[in-house]
Fold each of these.
Amino acid sequence: DSVANQIAAGEVVQRPASAVKELLENSIDAGADHITLIIKDAGKTLMQVIDNGTGMSETDARMAFERHATSKIQKAEDIFAIHTKGFRGEALASIAAVAQVELKTKKEDEELGVMLRVEGSKVMEQEYCNTKRGTQLEVKNLFFNIPARRNFLKSNNVELRHIIDEFERVALAHPDIHFSFVNNGNELFDLPAAGLRQRIVNIFGSKFNEKLVPVDEETPILKLTGFICKPEFSKKTRGEQFFFANNRYIRNNYLHRAVCNAFEGLLTEGSHPSYFLFMDIDPAKIDVNIHPTKTEIKFEDERSIFTIIRTAVKHALGQYNI
Ligand code: ADP
Ligand code: MG
């Protein structure tokens, strides 16, 4: 039932950026330490991810495109408690329902790899191939079989911006992985494995070397680490604002306000702080009633988290003034 597949796919794959996110996360789950993202036309005609992770056996490769085929866990009660990014086995099935996909993959101990071509959920071709250990996934012509969705995509500038946003979030959460990103033949990023500070500098520019102030606070409820930018570097534009909970990028306006609140009196009128904050928190304290592909999350005890974050950022700001 390709219609049902296409509808389900729409939930996971809204635009090229959502497919890119899923592919990058699969490579991370596969233990890759070098991941290359290649796109054309803001992902509309091509999105390719190449990794040096574990690769897949022939059976795994075929299974990967089945809905609810995940090798990761059986039931996910709480996505913030699990270590792998994926867990529902929907991403590849969804992407393959609405695009032309080619997979090449090989495990370390196998002589030959396997190539699989899937189009609109149908396996078109399968053969053995020579390839390196790891996985290459090529996604061509997203929404080729749903013209209405294809026409609904925004301009290349807008779609590329979304992809860069996803790429930056993933790259910040995994500074120990080497990421490369090529768009229309131009290298947009080449980020060798590094620590978080160096990763920020490599993504956003060497001017960040002087801007960053470390945040490091541990309470019984949560641990907060990362960096804020010194107030004199705050911007009129929204700036770089990144929050991660248990290493997943999240968006939460209340916590954003906690950071802004700590900067109060230090910023000039109408400017915004930049920050890269990582929160480690007991997953039981995160509202589990959330869609895994969404980035908005809620906390059980938002008020105390607000206070802890504000205090941590104030400490960081105070320390750097001494
Ligand atoms: P999930 O990540 O939720 O398990 P996906 O649809 O994203 O589901 O992937 C399905 C399965 O395909 C994964 O569980 C994994 O076994 C396999 N897989 C996907 N991408 C890769 C990759 N880059 N390297 C190795 N295995 C992969
Ligand atoms: Mg996945």
Note: Residues 22, 26-27, 29-30, 51, 53-56, 60, 64, 69-72, 86-93, 135 surround adenosine-5'-diphosphate (ligand 1) (CB under 6 Å).
Amino acid sequence: REVISPSNGASASAKPSTDPSAVQADVLQNLEYVVGAPSSKIPNGLDASSVYRGVAASVREHLIDAFNRTQDYWSEKDPKFVYYLSAEFLMGRSLMNAVQNLELTDTYSQAVKQLGYDLETLRDAEQNAALGNGGLGRLAACFIDSMATLNLPGWGYGIRYKYGMFKQAIDEKGYQQELPDIWLSNGNPWEIPRPDITFKIGFYGSVDNFKWSPGETVLAKAYDNPIPGFKTPTVGNLRLWEALPVAEFDLSAFNEGKYDKAVEERRKAEDISAVLYPNDATEYGKELRLKQQFFFVSASLQDAVARFKAKHGDNWQLLPEKAVFQMNDTHPTIAVAELMRLLIDEQSLDWDTAWGITQKTLAFTNHTVMPEALEKWPVKVLGKLLPRHMEIIDKIDQIWKDSLKEKVLAQVEEMHKKNPPKPKAAKPLKKEVPLAAKAEAGEPAEDEDEEEEEEDPVEAALNKYGIITENPWEKGVKLVNMAYLAVVGSKAVNGVAAIHSDIIKRTIFKDFYELAPHKFQNKTNGVTPRRWLAWCNPGLAALITETLGTDTWPNDLNLLTGLRKHADDKEFQKKWRAIKHENKAKLAAKIKARTGVDLPTDPLYDIQIKRIHEYKRQYMNILSIIYRYHQLKTASPEERKKFVPRVTIFGGKAASAYYMAKKIVRLINRVGMVVNNDPDVKDLLKVVFVPDYNVDWAEALIPAAELCQQISTAGTEASGTSNMKFQMNGCLIIGTMDGANIEIAEEVGKENLFIFGMDESEVPAWRESKRAEWKDYDPRFVKAIEMVRDGTFGDKEYFQDLADSVYDMKKGNDWFLVAPDFADYLRAQEEVDKVYLDQDEWTRRSILYTAGSGFFSSDRTIKQYADEIWDVVPVPVPSS
Ligand code: GL4
């Protein structure tokens, strides 16, 4: 594979100035003229937030400088670009990441020190950019970091939500409260508004002879967010769209004194990019959500298509050689229809040409098999909002099914040969009952069964491939299956971990896989080792650099295998442990400041941080803690001495409408209140729920963790990405054979993880047949459930249905196997305690985890996407 042009300039970028005193002068200049601080107050009379803004404005200059050079260079070279379309980019904070990626940390530390501040304090003044829910959104952020670092020409495209992920507070009863995330209130120094880059986005209206006249039009305005690569002058771009009204306001209404009406249009337009839907792998289905999706997809495609046209005119056959759009889950999949519309309606291509181009330009990643997250829009909703797109989707569906007819016919004939259909006359006995007798018995005169036309077997077989299908729960209601649309319209489809890519071929996309196996790929997720190891764990990073004798490992993470040979070295183990201990102490201080809970630093730090979901089984974790508490309470003083002290930490948000998830949050908090205040327990057990878990918390929690919980029911977690972050930071895993845990076990050695529970092949059988007669409740499970029920943690009534959901098969069905996996989970927990008593063995494993984490760098993942799907090559920007 060819690399276009100059050598990968591993030196620093050409910067405005990197001399600390020049940087200091620049910060002062920005404080005065950007922040507007009166010079009399500079520097001593300023609060951290103002100083942060001055420093950020100064760092921004370096970013913009390199950004412009990168984008100009790429524009001149005109290589193939990848566009990463994602409804979510969970960026977190930018200051430290920018300074570190630009290799300006020492310079800025010195500069601000001379002004009387330290960079660490200023760091905390930044608002978190939480434009994502969890793993999927953070993955997109890691991906654009890797794209820039690898010098890959590419942009992220998304939505500039005014309100990101809600802020979570926990009230005194332990209940989750949701507060708006007003993240832009202090401005955003990391973005460049582009008032000159706008596109019109239409909605509703009608179609006449293929011509769409939208009934409503809004403007999409661009904001560019420079994304610095590491050890390269390349700075990539995340372009986010804001929705605005086309006309500032309705002047005639204003003149008539109807002020509300005058601004109504503005409000309606702005609503589109106002809030991030706080759902993660749970139900969507709101029209505004579809509006958001089309809004950013249309703006992004129009933008990329316009850029292409400016360079290549109407040579549309060249488009697949110049652009590829990666669709991050089903959220941007309306792109299939929108690209067709742009090519046909706006660029006058014929259907077949447009379809050929579309299928070569789009690619699709699936991130979940949770049925409720696989978006299916009612034809009625989609057809009203986007009538022309509905027409296009209809035709795609028709042509697609027509193309399958022959194959399906052959399949049906084959089936009939093996299994001849029963002759019709032999069917219902019911037929013999005279209609009059039925009427007497009060039954409907017409037999509905017989009214129904027997479905043509070819038709039926074709329907399973249908993009447009009938809602199985609501007769007569038609749905557009967005995942199917994406599969048909894409050149490649991938899952996000080996097991997940395998499952989608066997389940949700089985029929599609059989038709086009070459389309299906795996791209195991990865995370950026810059933010998730080098920057968040400076102590460990320094030890790694010292041990390996090089600081290039964040760009070449496989170098970490060099740590393996030190795993048994007692001196090295000691240093390794000391760093972990220091990180635990830092975390304890942060938790004390935020929650008031005092944590000892010697116990095992056990952490589960992720969205609250039944399938992720925080519930099972807290039940095991409840049982541990019971053991402690009933132990003799002698027995108590044998307990391995543990600090259990939870963090995560529950979607606002997710009933059970909210109960789980409350239960964890309630258990914490009781356990942490019980004098019998002392420092042997602590239970903490960190409120408002976000990227910033993760950066403090992960380096301090010794054990992390990756305990999803096998077959449910597509990949998981926190598992990789924990692994990089030398944290041991207790987990199921699910998602990327399986590949982590391969890299680290399965015997070094605490694996438990049913595996993916056993789960369906338990659900389908064993569950009904299963009575094998472990007495420890029963005890824990009783304690939830009997009011030990208060809120007796409130917790009844939570208890029932896994215990009373008449009321709940324990779909995620909390009860049957519980005993083996406790066995694994006991194993954890045993190994923790042997600190040398624990540390040895910890080192092996980090040493085996090279595969999980998002650089590796992105390189695979670039080589195997995108066909995009690095275009390093020359350093000046
Ligand atoms: C998710 C998966 O649930 C998670 O396992 C995966 O790691 C992540 C990124 O691929 O995508 N899918 C959805 S939906 N939300 C996620 O976090």
Note: The CA atoms of residues 308 and 406 lie 38 Å apart.
